[in-house]
Specification:
Elements (H helix, E strand, L loop, with lengths): L1 E5 L5 E5 L10 E10 L2 H5 L16 E8 L11 E4 L9 H4 L9 H7 L8 E5 L3 E3 L6 H5 L1 H14 L6 E5 L3 H12 L3 E6 L2 H9 L4 E4 L5 H8 L5 E6 L6 H11 E9 L14 H6 L3 E4 L5 E2 L2 E2 H10 L9 E6 L3 H9 L1 H4 L3 E5 L1
Helix pairs in contact: 5-6, 5-11
The structure holds zinc ion (ZN).
């Protein structure tokens, strides 16, 4: 099969590799149709020697190609969205379907199902969710971001009439905005670019603030009758964390919550925060990691249901499309959000 392989320089080259066989009777193989580029992929775009020779990518949709003999609910030709959150399936967290907390999660994902930038992918049948006919492969590829947002919404305990802030209007921030509105909250969303904030307004944001141009705090106070928001969701991550974590802990009211959705870098890092204020105000810091199940419901399936019902708009987030052969150009466009106005970049495979 054709696949995009990471080089030591961090970009990709297209090569022919062995098509993965199905290793277990309850696994399936799918022909990948669309794969998105995630912020995590972008951070790994720069030289990451340990990724050399690897296939990456974890936001994808496709068509079932082969099913193992124990699979009864999927058949070749089924259109699917593919969840790539896969642990060892035997640890205490996997056994209660909190597999996003599996200690071996990233190792196992990378070895198996998180290989979207290729023609075929394999995984357990229960990570492949059938798409209704009217949901496109492109929209389905956005569902991984949506499920990350839904997990943060679940952890936050958001409720009717809450006033919340979302920091960062990328695919996660913009799907979180829609979920927060569905939950009955009023939403102020920030970014350092105007373009994604225009999309946020179209998707129902009550207030948008470009924090590259002005201080967010006065807007927060005007939005909340000088109280601060009930919940702040940090959705920027990476290099923005020193700024956004400080903003989050000053935007949030006494007794409120800060949900950390954006990703950190691997090395231990110090952040300068007003810890005395955080303690005196009893601001709860809630890290959110990927997604899995909430009670009896798969968070991926819940997002698929919302998308299929027209309650979640994925189309508005898809700004660019490239064939797999142009993956390096696609990454460059995604990295240059200021010039390219990119939000969700889709690779057609
Ligand atoms: Zn596990």
């Amino acid at each position: 099969m054709k696949a995009a392989i990471k080089t030591a320089q961090g970009d990709f080259w297209i090569d022919e590799v062995e098509t993965p066989p199905i290793p277990h009777p309850d696994w399936v193989r799918a022909r990948v149709k669309v794969a998105g580029i995630c912020g995590t992929d972008l951070r790994h775009w720069k030289p990451e020697p340990q990724l050399e020779g690897k296939i990456i990518g974890h936001e994808l949709s496709g068509v079932i190609d082969v099913v193992g003999e124990a699979v009864t609910d999927l058949k070749p030709g089924d259109r699917v969205v593919i969840e790539t959150v896969l642990g060892d399936e035997v640890c205490p967290w996997c056994r209660i379907r909190h597999y996003n907390l599996c200690p071996r999660l990233y190792e196992i994902r990378a070895e198996t199902i998180s290989r979207a930038f290729a023609e075929y992918v394999i995984g357990p049948a229960n990570r492949f969710y059938k798409l209704p006919d009217h949901v496109s492969f492109e929209e389905a590829a956005v569902l991984d971001s949506s499920a990350v947002s839904l997990h943060a919404v679940h952890l936050s305990g958001i409720t009717l009439n809450d006033r919340v802030a979302i920091l960062g209007a990328g695919p996660i921030g913009l799907t979180l905005l829609q979920l927060a509105k569905l939950a009955g909250a009023r939403v102020l969303i920030t970014d350092i670019l105007d373009f994604p904030l225009q999309v946020a307004t179209q998707l129902g944001a009550d207030v948008t603030v470009n924090t590259a141009k002005e201080d967010g705090l006065p807007h927060i106070m005007a939005f909340t009758n000088d109280r601060g928001v009930d919940i702040t969701y940090e959705c920027a991550g990476g290099d923005y964390m020193p700024t956004t974590l400080r903003e989050a802990t000053t935007f949030t009211r006494q007794g409120g919550k800060v949900v950390i959705v954006g990703g950190f870098d691997e090395e231990p890092t110090a952040y300068t925060l007003d810890w005395m204020h955080i303690q005196k105000a009893e601001i709860k810091l809630i890290p959110s990691a990927s997604y899995s199940y909430w009670g009896i419901y798969s968070e991926m399936q819940t997002c698929l249901d919302l998308l299929a019902a027209g309650k979640l708009d994925a189309k508005s987030l898809i700004t660019h499309r490239y064939p797999l052969e142009q993956i390096n150009e696609a990454f460059a466009v995604d990295a240059d959000k200021a010039q390219q106005h990119s939000i969700f970049v889709a690779l057609t495979i």
